[in-house]
Amino acid sequence: GVDRDRGETVGIFGDFDADGLTASVIFRTALAALGVKNMVYIPHKVDEGHGLSQRAVDTFANTGIHLIVTLDCGMMNHTEIEQALARGIETIIIDHHHVPEVLPKALAIINPKLPNEAYPFRDLCGAGTSFKVATALYQRFLPDKVQELKWLLDVAAIGTVADVMPLIGENRTIVKYGLLVLAKTRRVGLQELVTVGRIPMNESLPPTARLIAFHIAPRINAASRMAHGKLAHDLLMESDRVKARGLALELEAYNVARQKQSQSVTELVLQLAEAKYRDKKFIFAAGPEYPLGIVGLVAGRVAHETGKPTCILQTEGETSRGSFRSIPGLNIIGILEQCGDMLEKFGGHDQAAGMTIRNDRLESFYERFNGLVETALTGIVTEPELTIDLNLHSHDVSLELSRSLGELQPFGEGNPEPVFALESVRLAGVRTVGKDSQHWKLSVERPDGLTPLDVVGWSLVKVYPGLAPGMRLDLAGVIAENAWNGRSSVQMVLKDLRTLQ
Questions:
Q1: Can you spell out the DSSP letters for 135-176?
Q2: Does the domain spanning 4-250 belong to CATH 3.90.1640.30?
């Protein structure tokens, strides 16, 4: 353990992604409130990879630390935890990843997925689990300050959404209230990130889970992808506004570079997919031209675009390493386990995984893996499906409906926004908007003298060309409130449409 009164220091080892960083920020904030000294070690994504390393253990040992706490990692670090023990350092694991059959020799393991765990909610992320531990520490040692914990919910929500956790059960509560805290966050670093990144969030435009997923999480993750995760950690911890502005500007520049790089690499892999893997079930790209920081991101985009599981590896010297992204219904880690003998290292979840392989085994690995994917997908339809929750009449669509649907928020993973269908409606108005005229702005006739209903189709002009007034259509989409110049109206945001003759 650690003796606070003797001024001993706890070593915090946090993963480099948004969940690991927010988990570390939560835990460090709690320790500071308790008056416990702590130092943090965030590994470098490319040089060190996920999980506790010998290098980190050495750093902690040389600083005279006797207790390491791992956040959002540690379940697979049996060797490193024993190396630490040999040097007189104990480890506490706070994690939510897959539980191996043999547990590491840690002083304590806090993980909602442990088989004998009585806690009723298993889908907490690293930040969520860290928040629960912080809560327990406050209840035990700072009972009169428990209400201050709510100020940690903004970062807990960021970790939960960034790690694509289902927004049900306790995660829904964390994210729902975390978004309220985010709207008035006390973290100078987050305030500056919003300002510098021109993130669309203010008093009249409260943040949503989607805003975290598309604007905040990618910026936090840009640190580890393009430079070092420590930069984003420092931004979240910073209390000096001038320093925070500098860090936010640096992060914004990395995010812009990350967007450009991932766009060009995605195009490269999509061309390869078309040229080489058209008749195959699995897309596989390995070469020095794929930067390790973004291979997971690109693999996810390609898998989404093609409906095929995708693996992208960066080749360096004798080996290649990188990331897998799967498609719904295909457990990728299960298939990787059947190829374990060909790999130097692998790990992950059923939808996302990572691996290292010797270059002389790349071709034989592809053959085996592709065969296993083909077998696994036999009889499974991999075409993307749009599930419609309810058929509506156009006269049912109103601002009241939109606002009552808002009670179901936050929408996201595990709690998708309800999709409605309007059948056989007639187009009244048709125009295109956007700098490349890429978006449809439509209106459909409604009965009983009601004003036409506005329908927008973002980036759908290419997908559904040639719409004209008078056409009959079936529409599917979500009902949204459109606030413009202080006035609110209801609109449908299109997901799909079908023209009727």
A1: HHHHHHH-GGGGGGGGGGHHHHHHHHHHTT--SSHHHHHHHH
A2: yes
CA distances from 115 to 102, 169, 444, 501 (A): 12, 19, 54, 57
Q: Within 212-328, where are the H helices?
A: 217-226, 230-237, 241-276, 295-306
- List the chain domain ranges: 4-250, 277-376, 390-500
Residue 501 has pLDDT above 80, yes or no: no
Condensed to tens digits (0 to 9), the pLDDT of residues 442-482 reads 999 999 888 999 999 998 999 999 999 999 999 999 999 88
Architecture per CATH, 277-376: Roll (3.10)
Whether 185 contacts 202, CB under 8 Å: no
User: How far is residue 206's CA from residue 79's CA, in Å, rounded to a whole number?
Assistant: 46
- Residues 321 and 295: their CA atoms lie apart, in Å, by 9
The whole-number pLDDT of residue 2 equals 67
Counting Cα atoms < 13 Å in the Cβ hemisphere of 461 gives 13
This model's pTM is above 0.85 = yes
CB atoms within 10 A of CB 90: 17
Q: How far apart are CA 501 and CA 499, in angstroms?
A: 7
Q: Report yes or no: 458 and 384 within 8 Å, Cβ to Cβ.
A: no
Strand partners, 493: 456, 478
Secondary structure class of 284 (helix, strand, coil): strand
Amino acid at 358: R
Closest CA to 73 of 122, 135, 116, 24: 24
Q: Which two tokens stand for residue 351?
A: 């939808």
Kindly state the average pLDDT of the residues 50-55. Answer: 94
d(CA 379, CA 99): 31
Is the CB of residue 267 less than 8 Å from the CB of residue 289? no
Q: Per DSSP, what are the bridge partners of residue 14? A: 71
Q: Which CATH architecture has domain 390-500?
A: Beta Barrel (2.40)
The dihedral through the CA atoms of 476, 477, 483, 488 has a sign that is: positive
Report how far residue 221's alpha carbon sits from residue 32's, in angstroms, rounded to the nearest whole number.
Answer: 25
